[in-house]
Amino acid sequence: MKNLEVLEELWTVINERAEHPSPDSYVSSILTHRKGIDKPLEKVGEEATEFILAVKNGENDRTIEEGADLLFHFLVALKAAEIDIEDVLGELAARRK
Ligand SMILES: N=c1c2ncn([C@@H]3O[C@H](COP(=O)(O)OP(=O)(O)OP(=O)(O)O)[C@@H](O)[C@H]3O)c2ncn1[C@@H]1O[C@H](COP(=O)(O)O)[C@@H](O)[C@H]1O
């Protein structure tokens, strides 16, 4: 899977934004939002719903876009919850049969 490394790059950027918030950064705006953890969780809920609707409507291009949004906001929410992606991947690895 040649694009898998983008997840690692994205996780690195999200961590950098958490450590050094910037006013121009969308990730920072989510991580420092006045609603706290509710903001990233709200985004995961929104994007999950949009993803479901795109699949149900048979809209392949939109499914790809919404899938990307969902993965992105999942990673941001994981960071906001102070969980390392490595632990989630470790859990998946442990489930391999
Ligand atoms: N993958 C993304 C990504 N996907 C979507 N978005 C941003 O999400 C915003 C639009 O989202 P929505 O329409 O769902 O949001 P909204 O309803 O307008 O407002 P909110 O609910 O988010 O407040 C736009 O500003 C997009 O730029 C993203 N912003 C950043 N990334 C990645 O995160 C990296 C760091 O980004 P910055 O933190 O902005 O530097 C980038 O290099 C990208 O790799």
Describe it.
The chain has one domain: Helix Hairpins (Orthogonal Bundle), CATH 1.10.287. Helix 1 packs across helix 4 (about 60-80) and helix 3 runs antiparallel to helix 4 (about 60-80). It has about 100 residues and is an all-alpha fold. It has helices at about 5-20, 25-30, 40-55, 60-80, 85-95. The chain is globular, with a radius of gyration of 14 Å. Bound molecules: phosphoribosyl ATP (PRT). Phosphoribosyl ATP (PRT) binds next to helix 1, helix 2 and helix 4.
SSE order and pairing:
Layout: H1 5-19, H2 26-31, H3 38-56, H4 60-80, H5 85-95
Tally of DSSP β-strands? 0
Share in helix:
over 70%
Q: Poorly predicted ranges (pLDDT <50, ≥5 residues)? A: none
Could you name the CATH homologous superfamily?
A: MazG-like
Number of domains: 1
What hetero molecules are bound to the protein chains? phosphoribosyl ATP
Radius of gyration: 14 Å
Instruction: Tell me the name of the CATH class.
Output: Mainly Alpha
Counted by DSSP, the helix tally is 5
Which class do the helix and strand fractions yield? mainly alpha
Q: SSE string, helix = H, strand = E? A: HHHHH
List keywords for this structure.
Helix Hairpins, mainly alpha, 5 helices, binds phosphoribosyl ATP, globular, 97 residues
Summary of the model, kept short:
With 97 residues, this protein is mainly α. The chain has helices spanning 5-19, 26-31, 38-56, 60-80, 85-95.
